[in-house]
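Q: Hi! First time doing this. I have a protein sequence and I read that you can turn it into a structure. Is that right? Here it is:
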Amino acid sequence: MGLGKQIRLNRLFAHPSGRFCSVAVDHFVGYAGKMHPGLANLPKAIAEVVAGGPDAVTAQKGAALSCWGPHAGKVPLILQAGCFTQDDRISEIVTDPEECVRMGADAIAIAIGVRGSSEGRYIKFLADGVAAAARYDLPVIAHIYPRRFSSSGVTVLHEPDEIFWATRVGIECGADVVKVPYTGDPTSYGQIVDVCPVPLVAAGGPKTETLEDALESMAGVVASGARGATIGRNVWGHGEIGVALAAFKGVIHDRLCPSDALARATRDSAVPA
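A: Yes, that's right. Below is the predicted 3D structure, encoded as structure tokens:
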């Protein structure tokens, strides 16, 4: 590993726990134009996320260009290159490693889908991105989602065999960090973590009914031995971004049980600054 890549990865995994609690605000075409109210005011949402002190923020380049200036240097920035919908209506790469380095990013994220007839094209997206990023010592974080195509639509899968395959795609393409959905069970997820030679982090997953539900799932991710998670809707989708992020940090970094993490986050938010 080159020194530049090591420095950048060390920034991402800088917490003494060795784990990673990051927030994604890169939600774009995959939501079919139905933007969640939590991201309707993007500058405000990003400001509240940064104020909570995540280990990194993942954004599309346009959001970074227009909203990141006031926060530059405060937390690591990851730029999302993948732009796709689950049904493959859209499948594009919208930035490259050179642009990411020029914008000061610490890593490039490449989101892809696997399974289905488009799997080979997505694998090439990721492999080409890894090769291009190597010229700049820029880490690649692969966001990989296994899918099932049926007459009723396309769904993201969480079964252990499918998550193992998604992880293997990331390994074979040379990604530096692999992000995949949680299987819902720390034992099966831990078996995948154990055979992954690079850091494996969990996707935050669909928005849960309550924040407590999301924290319970994250406790399982931590118990599996994974190196943390990137969370989106379950941070900015539950109303109080600062409280939600503080609670996730309590679970991921301090290994607090969900109820204690949420109680601490709520208590701390009530203390005057």
